[in-house]
Write a structure and sequence with these properties.
The protein is an alpha/beta fold. The chain has 20 helices and eight strands. The chain folds into four domains: about 30-165, Rossmann fold (3-Layer(aba) Sandwich); about 170-240, Orthogonal Bundle (Helicase, Ruva Protein, domain 3), CATH 1.10.8.60; about 255-340, Zinc Finger, Delta Prime, domain 3, CATH 1.20.272; about 350-435, post-AAA+ oligomerization domain-like (Orthogonal Bundle). Helix 14 (about 255-265) packs parallel to helix 16 (about 290-305).
Length: about 425
């Protein structure tokens, strides 16, 4: 071993555990079987060195950068790794010029791995587009943000989108055990980690293997020793990793995904799922008034006339969120969410108003029938306003007469379902009007 080997070994030891344990081959890579299982398209593209422009999309610590570096080890192309955070327009121009020279002089294509690709401006993305179109540059972008919102459509259309998922608890534990045993990790130390400790790291890392490895490293450095062995207990684990944070960022995709799941759980009549997503949002600091608004909309949009009490319960929760606030209003929000989730469902209200609005916008209105016009002002009778109007209470509360304009008189907007109270409403309307 020469001085360079000694220096390299020392530098590797100084690197964080997560960096030392970063997989270097597809065989070492943990997780993402849906993309990297043998026979899968991405796996075949990597091992045959036929990777095309791609976007790796997923939460932190799931292997986006690692996968790009593994590609660098398989390809014969010139591989460039950059971060969009510190890459300017001049850097983009230089990359394109160098890629052009490499292709002309050496016949080598260029793969550009751009971390946090969503941070590139539209101008920078547009600048790279012609080179990607011509095949001069193969772009591999990594992002935690939804690429369909953050990456230019033209660039996106020329790239494959691969979504990487959070690692499972078992996959996290596999990475932790590897770190304990591997020479790249702590294989040269005698470490005894209680299964409960590794399980705690896994459960509380939110699928982020980097977070789990950082916590393990802290535990190894700070835990006590017995007979030369480092003992990591469950209590040590709790001190070395922050409490699990819900995968929820009010400014990112998870915000929209979670509120969507919350609404769909209420619509799907699953109170358990509705309360879970409610708890996830509240734990992450979501504005309770925002949540209350969504429940209030849902109460009419998806419950509606099937149970008109739903909107009252939702409105009360809105009042509580506005006047009481957290933490007490969590109970009111849960009350409302459970009520509307358990209520019978009908979308007849939204169908009725949307159909009516469509007719208002798109069909000529022949005007209010004269007998329905205001007859309270002087001279109205001479114009025929109100003449012929049948006062329902004079006929026991109901009398048949046309209320819609002639141009719309046969239109039906409100179509009650057979769910909840609407069955009774449907039967009553049929009895009164003699039709569906």
């Amino acid at each position: 071993m020469d001085l360079f080997d000694i220096a390299n070994k020392k530098n590797n030891v100084l690197k964080p555990l997560a960096e030392r344990m970063r997989p270097e081959t597809l065989g070492e890579f943990i997780g993402q079987e849906h993309l990297l299982g043998k026979g899968k398209m991405l796996y075949r593209a990597i091992v045959t060195d036929n990777i095309s422009s791609a976007i790796f999309y997923g939460p932190p610590g799931v292997g986006k950068t690692t996968l790009a570096r593994i590609i660098a080890g398989y390809t014969k192309a010139n591989f460039i790794e950059m971060s969009a955070v510190n890459t300017g327009t001049s850097d983009v121009k230089k990359i394109i010029a160098d890629a052009d020279n490499n292709l002309k002089l050496y016949g080598k294509k260029t793969i550009l791995f751009l971390d946090e690709v969503h941070r590139w401006s539209k101008n920078q993305q547009d600048l790279l587009l012609p080179s990607v179109e011509k095949g001069l540059i193969v772009l591999i972008g990594a992002t935690t943000e939804n690429p369909f919102f953050e990456v230019n459509k033209a660039l996106l259309s020329r790239s494959m989108i691969f979504q990487l998922n959070s690692l499972t608890d078992e996959e996290i534990k596999k990475a932790l055990n590897n770190a304990v045993k591997s020479p790249k990790g702590f294989g040269n130390l005698e470490i005894e980690a209680e299964p409960e400790a590794l399980n705690y790291f896994a459960v509380n890392s939110s699928g982020d293997v980097r977070k789990a490895l950082n916590a393990l490293e802290m535990a190894v450095k700070t835990s006590g020793k017995e007979n030369g062995r480092i003992i990591i207990t469950a209590e040590d684990a709790k001190e070395c990793i922050q409490r699990k944070m819900a995968l929820y960022d009010k400014g990112a995709d998870s915000h929209y995904d979670t509120i969507s799941a919350f609404i769909k759980s209420m619509r799907g009549s699953d109170p358990d799922a509705a309360v879970y997503y409610l708890g996830k949002m509240l734990d992450a600091g979501e504005d309770p008034v925002f949540i209350a608004r969504r429940i209030l909309v849902h109460a009419s949009e998806d419950v509606g006339m099937a149970d008109s009490n739903a909107i009252q319960v939702a409105a009360s929760a809105m009042t509580a969120a506005t006047t009481i606030g957290m933490p007490e209003c969590r109970i009111n929000l849960a009350h409302a969410a459970i009520y509307v989730a358990c209520a019978p469902k009908s979308d007849s209200v939204i169908s009725a108003i949307d159909s009516a609005l469509s007719d208002v916008k798109n069909k000529r209105d022949s005007g209010v029938p004269p007998y329905l016009m205001d007859a309270h002002y002087k001279g109205a009778e001479k114009l025929g306003h109100g003449t012929g109007y049948l006062y329902p209470h004079a006929y026991g509360g109901f009398v048949k007469q046309q209320y819609l304009p002639d141009s719309h008189k046969n239109n039906v907007y409100y179509k009650p379902t057979e769910n909840g109270m609407e069955l009774r409403i449907r039967e009553r309307l049929k009895r009164l009007w003699g039709e569906e």
